[in-house]
Design goal:
The protein is of the alpha/beta class. It has 24 helices and 26 strands. The strands form 7 sheets. It has a 6-stranded mixed sheet with strand order 11-16-15-14-12-13, sandwiched between helices. A 5-stranded parallel sheet has the order 4-3-2-1-10. Strands 18-26-25-20-21 form a 5-stranded mixed sheet. A hairpin with a 7-residue loop joins strand 25 (753-760) and strand 26 (768-774). Helix 2 packs across helix 14 (351-367) and helix 12 (309-319) crosses helix 13. The longest helix is centred in the middle third of the chain and has 17 residues, at 351-367. It is globular and about 75 Å long. The termini are far apart. 57% of the residues are buried. Bound molecules: beta-D-glucopyranose (BGC). The site of beta-D-glucopyranose has 9 residues, from loops.
């Protein structure tokens, strides 16, 4: 099991809160400013004064858990210059205390760099990343991460281990919740938005953090969806699917990269020079530093790759890992700290190789301004954390992230003035759970401040509507989450008698209510790291509860709180309304109530293809066409027991209004290689209320030196239209959209060919046009 760590750092730094949303504008890509000659000089000067032990110290990052470690356990090493970075410290007093030792009592006075997993919020929790991707709204993501950065920076954290940009096409893999889903184009737009949000125009500026793209690369392709399992990915798939979000983060100026845990094509990612040197540095020109995932260097031995810890240090460093993240007390930890000095003395590693890694760490510290402002101002923390604007944005982010999967007979929105729905039963194990509304990687917020669905609905409807709650069933992981050590154990499971009584109580409450809002899904620790599962079934007796309550013949709204697509096939045939809320964050309950009662209109879209059953996995829309194309009449060859189509397609999401796409135009239907064309479409709100639609452009290259996916997303835009409003949306299709990496050419190619284009509301859009690309 892995334990999360946080690297913190700190001292008297003047922190400003993030500017309020309205004032934010992020037109340019962020950078951790390029090296100035003066930084080069300062690094050279410092390097020339460092002993080999001090250099190795800069390459050592340690977890510190206040919950079960004492500061005295790490202070001697900080004083001796044997630690360059710490993670998982969120207490500004401890950050300042450690930093003081580093900058006042160590020989060279090099400040520490403090990091933490600021994944979807710090004190204010935003929707989980998969949910934020469902917004299809990069500017929202950027704003949310700017707020998260400001709150973390307020306590002295200067570096976040985010964004996770791993493409994930297997919902059994628990970490699908931490990324943007299955698609490289959407994933790239999201990756860049996260980076801009965290770093701003410059990661050293007030309220900002250094970002870290992770986990490089291929972690999302774990065999069987089992966390940490090996990934086997052909080069074409790496370049076309798994690499693009990383490349987008590099282009957006991301300051650091985390290597992944698993084997990629039999070479562990943390000892993989193809990834860390050939692709990351040589092909992409990445200038930041690389940190290992926790204990991933020492685990090169566990993988059966390195001979021993010293060999692991050698392989990690020479492959391109600059900083080793180590967990205290693990026998595989501290490979660099225990071996690098000796490796230099033995001549296996050169001083030049050590200096190259140390230089990158020092550069980051200089650029972040740590030498000038190492401390954090503890007196400003509360003001920054209590900014009401943060909660307001969290509510908007949650509203915009939700996906209305189904709404038969326009059951939603509910009307709180309608006497026919004056008693509401809110039922389910997640309906009143403050812990689960937030999602994994929520460690620092005040869990009591999170708003549950029951609370959100009560606040929304007022006293004229009777709102009652029953859990109905309890759910639990079979194998305990490693994170309970940080988040606390769950209450004991119910006894058999209690289970029966709670079930009956929920059914009887449903029977006596006008409408039932059933809140089902997963505990927050059922997705995330070390949270894979073999099925995608609704855990516990939730399906039985759904079936029993549906049998009462009352209107039922299913609200899902979860971190992955779940098997909701039964609900899809039997429940009128289904709202996918994911883990929506601190304001989740309010945002759900806003949507259910029509104060906000749903406009999110699925960033993943939704399977009918686990047996369809992996299932993703951008697959190649087989000799039995799905559009063939009587197509039954894929499975004989179920339809081959997913339950819900990638890009799907309904609104309370309706939209029509028309007038698809291609400005130049024939272009030469390298030229661009404009694709435009009219989108009209044909309903009676305002709402959001996401116009999505898909392409297919009909022939070439490789088979290309049946459809690939190449453009999208979320727009808000008033009732009756019509607007033209425009996309540019050019070289970058029409180029792909070909195994036959062993490189990027753009070919003369015919392309099919579709624009519409999801990946099954039928409004079509063509584009011909001809040789120059
Ligand atoms: C995870 C990383 C995380 C690190 C530090 C690891 O177990 O894989 O994503 O950033 O812990 O908490």
């Amino acid at each position: 099991m892995r334990v999360k760590v946080v690297v913190c750092f700190a001292l008297v730094m003047v922190l400003f809160d993030v500017p309020v949303l309205a004032r934010m504008s992020f037109s340019t890509n962020t950078v951790i400013s390029t090296n100035s000659p003066s930084i080069d000089r300062r690094v050279d000067e410092l390097l020339s004064r460092m002993t080999i032990e001090e250099k190795v110290g800069q390459l050592n990052q340690l977890f510190f858990f206040k919950q079960f470690m004492k500061p005295e356990m790490v202070e001697p090493d900080i004083r001796a210059g044997k630690v360059g970075s710490l993670l998982f410290i969120t207490d500004p007093a401890i950050i300042n205390r450690f930093q003081k030792i580093a900058v006042e009592n160590s020989r060279l006075k090099i400040p520490l760099l403090f990091g933490f997993d600021v994944i979807h919020g710090f004190r204010t929790i935003f929707p989980v990343p998969l949910a934020m991707a469902s917004s299809w709204d990069p500017s929202l993501v950027e704003q949310a991460q700017a707020v998260a950065a400001s709150e973390a920076r307020a306590v002295g954290i200067r570096w976040t281990f985010a964004p996770m940009v791993d493409i994930a096409r297997d919902p059994r893999w628990g970490r699908i919740v931490e990324g943007a889903g299955e698609d490289p184009f959407l994933g790239s737009r999201m990756a860049a938005a996260h980076v801009r949000g965290f770093q701003g125009a410059d990661a050293s500026s007030p309220g900002r953090l250094l970002a870290c793209m992770k986990h490089f690369a291929g972690y999302g392709s774990a065999s069987g969806g089992r966390d940490y399992d090996s990934a086997y990915i052909a080069d074409a798939e790496l370049y076309n699917v798994y690499f693009p979000p990383f490349k987008a983060a590099v282009d957006a100026g991301v300051g650091s990269t985390m290597s992944a845990y698993m084997d990629l094509n039999d070479v562990p990612a943390t000892g993989n020079a193809f990834l860390l040197r050939d692709v990351l540095r040589k092909e992409w020109g990445f200038k930041g530093f690389v940190v290992s995932d926790a204990d991933a260097v020492g685990n090169l031995v566990t993988h059966g790759f390195a001979e021993d810890k010293s060999d692991a240090a050698y392989r990690g460093l020479t492959a391109g890992v600059d900083l080793e993240m180590s967990f205290p007390g693990n026998p595989v930890s501290n490979a660099y700290a225990t071996s690098l000095t000796k490796l230099v003395q033995e001549g296996r590693v050169t001083t030049g190789q050590i200096d190259e890694a140390v230089r990158r760490i020092l550069e980051a510290k200089f650029k972040l301004g740590l030498f000038e402002n190492p401390y954090v101002d503890e007196s400003r923390v509360a003001t920054i954390h209590n900014n009401p604007e943060h909660r307001r944005l969290a509510r908007v982010a949650a509203q915009r992230s939700m996906v209305l999967l189904r709404n038969e007979g326009n059951l939603l929105p509910l009307d709180k003035r309608d006497p026919k729905v004056s008693s509401v039963a809110v039922i389910g194990p997640l309906a009143d759970s403050k812990r689960d509304i937030r999602g994994s990687w929520s460690f620092v917020d005040d869990v009591n401040s999170a708003v549950t669905v029951v609370e959100g609905i009560r606040a929304k409807v007022g006293p004229q509507v009777k709102v009652e709650y029953a859990a109905g069933v309890d759910i639990a992981r079979v194998n305990q989450s490693p994170f309970v050590i940080l988040q606390g154990a769950r209450p004991a499971a119910w006894s058999e008698t209690q289970k029966q009584a709670e079930f009956e109580k929920a059914v009887s409450l449903a029977r006596s209510s006008d409408v039932i809002i059933l809140v089902l899904g997963e505990h927050e620790e059922m997705s995330g790291e070390a949270a894979s599962q073999s099925t995608i079934d609704l855990p516990g007796r939730q399906l039985e509860l759904l079936k029993t309550i549906s049998g009462l013949g009352k209107p039922v709204v299913l609200v899902l709180i979860n971190g992955r697509p779940l098997d909701i096939s039964w609900a899809t045939s039997n429940t009128s309304a289904i709202l996918e809320a994911w883990h929506p964050g601190s304001e989740g309950g309010n945002a759900i109530a806003d949507i259910l009662y029509g104060d906000a209109t749903p406009g999110g879209k699925l960033p993943v293809t939704w399977p009918r059953t686990a047996g369809q996995i992996p299932i993703y829309y951008a697959h190649n066409i087989t000799q039995e194309p799905e559009n063939k009449k009587n197509f039954t060859s894929r499975y004989w027991d179920i339809p081959s189509s997913p339950l819900y397609p990638f890009g799907h999401g309904l609104s309370y209004t309706t939209f029509n796409f028309s007038n698809l135009r291609v400005s130049k239907p024939e272009v030469k290689l390298g030229e661009s064309t404009e694709v435009s479409v009219d989108v009209e709100n044909t309903g009676r209320r305002a709402g959001d639609e996401v116009a999505q452009l898909y392409i297919h290259q009909r022939y070439g030196i490789a088979s290309r996916p049946v459809r690939e997303l190449k453009g999208f835009e979320r727009i808000t239209l008033a009732a009756g409003e019509k607007r033209t949306v425009r996309f540019t299709l050019g070289k970058s959209e029409l180029t792909y990496w070909s195994a036959a050419a062993k490189g990027w190619v753009q070919e003369p060919a015919m392309f099919d284009l579709w624009v519409g509301a999801d990946s099954t859009a039928m409004l079509a046009a063509t584009l011909r690309v001809v040789a120059r």
